[in-house]
Amino acid sequence: MKNLNIKLLLILLVALLALAGCSSTSPSEEAQDPERTFTSEELSEYNGKDGNPAYVAVDGVVYDFTELELWVNGDHNGFEAGKDLTEEIKEISPHGLSVLDRATVVGTLEE
Ligand code: HEM
Question: Which atom of ligand 1 lies nearest, measured to the CA of 58?
């Protein structure tokens, strides 16, 4: 009877170890892909209107402007989110590229 108990205990221990091994799949396997690729059509959906996020492309990089104070509803000094504004920020804006480090990069724009 004592032997049987020890055997049962050993089986239980082995089963527990096996279970612990199975559940240890690395969380990095579920990590998001930070470099999503957008087509111009996909980008146009992120115009900051109707609860959509406000994404803007500059030099092939897609930025998230949703939380920026000066881009409420995806609008900023007559410009709209959901577009490639490379020429506009470089040629027309007074600030140039310096403000882009306030935004998070969410992907790249497909050529
Ligand atoms: C006539 C054109 C534009 C004017 C007059 C203008 C003006 C301004 C001003 C005065 C600021 C605040 C600067 C500061 O806080 O240091 C600003 C911020 C900003 N601008 Fe423009 N801008 C223009 C076009 C653009 C364009 C085309 C883009 C496209 C990428 C852009 C992106 C930004 C961003 C991301 C910020 C930071 C917003 C924030 O921190 O809330 N701007 N702009």
Answer: 30
